[in-house]
Design goal:
The chain is an all-alpha fold. It is 71% helix and 1% strand. It contains 16 helices and 2 strands. The protein has helices at residues 10-24, 26-33, 37-64, 68-75, 78-84, 99-116, 123-140, 146-149, 151-162, 166-184, 190-197, 205-223, 234-240, 254-287, 291-310, 322-346, and strands spanning 85-86, 89-90. It has a two-stranded antiparallel sheet. A hairpin with a 2-residue loop joins β1 (85-86) and β2 (89-90). The longest helix has 34 residues, at 254-287.
């Protein structure tokens, strides 16, 4: 809040609210301007086309190396090297700004493709969706972002609950066996080894450091119900209040950042918002009758659920372009229900 007495800098609030509020307003644009199923299909086709391009670009980076301009950018920044060069292997970010944004976008695209397998699509389309899902989850390993690896199992758990039938039971059973084998198989591959550590967080040094940092900041959160002010941590905190306590704190988590900047009151409001979004999405999913719109709504719910889980170990919801997609997914929860209602009114059952 700009009037927060604990805020070290009002200018940090101005710079932060510009990007955050601007992206949030895109929800209303999506909600009121998406008026047909054909437009939803167009958006999905465009999104998945870009995702496939990003996946293929990551394969190029992994097996054929970086372009010259990419190597210059990496070699000229020691801090970037320390972050992206792990165990003798470069983390890949494809066309995105960083590996986290790349991996989370691949997870969201993959979850959508899996949902389409249980919809009314043709056999050829389901084969295509299967191949794309495998591609997205395969290249996700190149990012080295362990937080992204747990999102798929989480989404599959919710899928099992919401769409319980024999097909889903068989699919999730096969998926569970595959994941257990993948987590425990001996390997010398650096990407797979890093994937396995995501499911053993207590043995991970970086995870333990984050836990310690969060314990240190908890007294501040408890004593500041509305936090230290928007933009008090991270880049804007360092720029506008470099000597403040919060500017030196690495949040490393979307929810921790909210708790620090907006306090436990702000964290409670954000959690309520996410609960309402998911509750509305689940309710709409069971109300929608059109199979195609029902499948789209289910996909949106699963992706929003996964992104919310990913927002704890990383700052997922503010990562571009996933921040734009996030509000698109929320809008589509309402749009699919509205279009289904319009279809029922125009074509009532006899």
């Amino acid at each position: 809040m700009v009037i927060n007495p604990a805020a070290e800098s009002r200018l940090a609030w101005v710079y932060t609210i510009r990007s955050v509020a601007g992206v949030m307003l895109s929800y209303f644009i999506f909600n009121y301007q998406i008026k047909t199923v054909a437009f939803i299909r167009l958006i999905i086709k465009f999104w998945l086309t870009l995702s496939v391009f990003a996946a293929l670009y990551a394969i190029k980076q992994e097996y054929f190396g970086f372009f010259a301009y990419e190597e210059r950018a990496l070699n000229n920044d020691p801090m970037l090297q320390a972050l992206l060069y792990i165990d003798g292997h470069w983390r890949k970010s494809s066309i995105f700004s960083d590996p986290v944004a790349f991996s989370y976008n691949m997870v969201a695209s993959g979850i959508f493709c899996i949902c389409m397998l249980f919809g009314p699509s043709s056999r050829n389309l389901k084969i295509l969706f299967s191949l794309m899902a495998l591609l997205f989850f395969f290249v996700m390993l190149f990012s080295g972002t362990r937080a992204a690896y747990v999102l798929l199992p989480a989404a599959m758990g919710l899928l099992f609950i919401l769409k319980f039938n024999l097909r889903v039971l068989i699919f999730t059973g096969i998926f569970a066996v595959f994941m257990i084998g993948l987590i425990n198989v001996p390997t010398s591959n650096s990407n797979l080894a890093r994937f396995q550590t995501a499911f053993r967080p207590n043995n991970d040094a970086s995870y333990n450091v984050r836990v310690e940092n969060q314990k240190k900041i908890q007294p501040f959160i408890r004593s500041h119900p509305i936090g230290g002010g928007l933009g008090s941590t991270g880049v804007w905190g360092v720029r506008f209040a470099p000597y403040s306590f919060l500017a030196q704190f690495p949040p490393d988590s979307g929810y921790v950042r909210v708790a620090v900047e907006l306090g436990w009151v702000g964290l409670f409001l954000i959690c309520c918002l996410m609960f309402i979004v998911l509750k509305t999405g689940i309710n709409n999913y069971f109300k929608i009758k059109d199979p195609e719109l029902k499948t789209y709504c289910l996909a949106m719910v699963l992706m929003i659920f996964a992104i919310n889980i990913g927002n704890f170990p990383q700052e997922a919801i503010v990562q571009f372009p996933l921040n734009v997609f996030f509000y698109l997914f929320i809008a589509l929860i309402n749009v699919t229900y509205r279009l289904d209602q319009e279809k029922q009114v125009s074509s009532p059952e006899v």
